[in-house]
Amino acid sequence: MSSLNDLKRKDLFQSKGYINGSWVDSSSSKTFDVVNPANLDRLATLPEMGASDCDKAVAAAHEAFKTYKKTSARERARLMRKWNDLVIANADDLALILMLENGKTLAEAKGEVLYGASFLEWFAGEAERIHGEYVPPANLNQRIITMRQPIGVAACMTPWNFPIAMITRKAGAALAAGCTTVWKPAGETPLSALAQAVLAQEAGFPKGAINVVTTLNNVAEVGKAICEDKRVKKMSFTGSTRVGKLLASQCANSLTKLTLELGGNSPFIVFDDAKLDSAVEAAIMAKFRNSGQTCVTANRIFVQKGIYDKFAEALTERIRKLKVGAGWEKDVFVGPLTHDRAVEKAMSHINDAKKHGGQVVLGGSPLERQKGYFIQPTVITHMNREMLTTREETFAPVVGLYEFDSEEQVLDWANDCDVGLGSFIQTENIARMWRVSEALEVGMVGVNLGLLSASESQFGGVKESGYGTEGGRHGIEEYLVWKSILINVAN
Ligand code: NAD
């Protein structure tokens, strides 16, 4: 079994909040526990912060912004590169912390650390490409230029499913743009964010540029305090649509600029002409990464009539071989779910599918283990559109297979939902690939693959999956404002 004692660098484990360059307790002295979801061992006890702690964190970021905004883009790029190098140098330790608090396997955790670092490297480059414009004036007595400036204090509220990469995708962009930050990691997985703060501090970011508010039970109070604080100019949240809507309403009064990366309900469409083996492998990646807890997880797997039986059988056999267990156990591919609510939700979806005619051909119940939030990898055939999973994200290793006839029908079904984040299509027909990619009402389409995200590509959704975009060339713009300067040059 692995534990935090195995860390090579012990200082990467921190159990306090981080405000204005110091590790601090909550002003109420209250605490909460962080638990390993694979065996329910307590990993750490952290400060349960509240509104008054947020006030201090925002004040520190607000003060630091006065000087940090004046750093040169080159200087910020160097800080970002140093941070990136430190993350890579400490990847094993970061992966260990991540595995222990989130439950994903060690291999996956290592993958997330490197993926997380890729945002730091990417935004190090983007820091120096924040260009303005020379605007040809209609009035020849004028000259017009536009410039872009950092928006101010940015709040980064990150979820428990990607505790490293969501910090770097948000805070990496913000810090590269010249903003200072307040991080509010999910209460289930705050240790990864705290370890990142250690490394960012070591990279040389000034005091107050990074602040971390830790909370589990006070999350509503903390979220509200940050959103309603007029010194916070930008709020970026990844999590459920329910919470995203709440935060948007709380930001309305101060008109705080928002990026919302919310829930999805990704269709994964397998056409008759798909390559069977690679479609199965893509489905495994798209569904089982992080035990099904990704916002682009293949939630509705639509399979065309001609290939349905073969695909269902091949996928089920492949899933039967997936080993389930704690992230540190040998050959484990599917870890536990991160919290107990997730097990309840998955079971309610399985039971609802059964009630509406779904046939469970594999799994279907929690895994029999002494402890931990485990669920058996589950395959349900004969899915129909009456079922809860048709409308809600399952967020668990539960595969539901729907059979369809035509391209037109599957597009209708795929688009018939309130959210639109990721999607996947499996086809060897290039004309169909274009038609379907263009017609899907989503922010991202994966063609003949099972992984959707890259630091150099925009990530974001449409409809109730939120607005704003992260990563790519446009991710940094979320943290910038435009200013135009008009100059009278008349004699
Ligand atoms: P939840 O809505 O309770 O919490 C989601 C996240 O929001 C957590 O990180 C939590 O710390 C934070 N949060 C909750 N209330 C908040 C508030 N008032 N202010 C600020 N932050 C707040 O969801 P959950 O039970 O953890 O998961 C439920 C479902 O949400 C999942 O099954 C999944 O569908 C979705 N989800 C999506 C993502 C994603 O990556 N888009 C991440 C987490 C959860």
Give the helices and strands, then pairings.
Elements: E1 17-19, E2 22-24, E3 31-35, E4 42-47, H1 51-68, H2 73-89, H3 91-102, H4 106-127, E5 133-135, E6 142-150, E7 153-157, H5 165-177, E8 181-184, H6 191-203, E9 210-212, H7 219-228, E10 232-238, H8 241-252, E11 257-261, E12 266-270, H9 276-288, E13 298-304, H10 305-320, H11 340-355, E14 359-362, E15 378-381, H12 388-391, E16 398-404, H13 407-415, E17 419-420, E18 424-426, H14 430-439, E19 446-447, E20 462-463, E21 480-488
Parallel strand pairs: 7-8, 7-10, 8-9, 10-11, 12-13, 12-18, 13-16, 15-16, 18-19
Antiparallel strand pairs: 1-2, 3-4, 5-6, 6-21, 14-15, 17-20
Bound molecules: nicotinamide-adenine-dinucleotide.
> Can you tell me the CATH topology of the largest domain?
Aldehyde Dehydrogenase, Chain A, domain 1
Helix and strand composition category: alpha/beta
Helix content: 25-40%
Overall CATH architecture of the largest domain = 3-Layer(aba) Sandwich
Taking the sheet with the most strands, its summary is: 7 strands, mixed
What binds here, in terms of ligands, is: nicotinamide-adenine-dinucleotide
The Cα radius of gyration reads 23 Å
Given the structure, what is the number of helices?
14
The CATH superfamily of the largest domain is identified as Aldehyde Dehydrogenase, Chain A, domain 1
Strand content: 15-25%
Low-confidence stretches: none
Which of globular, elongated, flat, extended, rod-shaped describes the shape? globular
CATH class of the largest domain: Alpha Beta
The N- and C-terminal alpha carbons lie at a distance of: 79 Å
Question: What is the typical, i.e. mean, pLDDT?
Answer: 97
- Spatial strand order of the main sheet: 14-15-16-13-12-18-19
User: Tally of extended strands?
Assistant: 21
Number of domains: 2
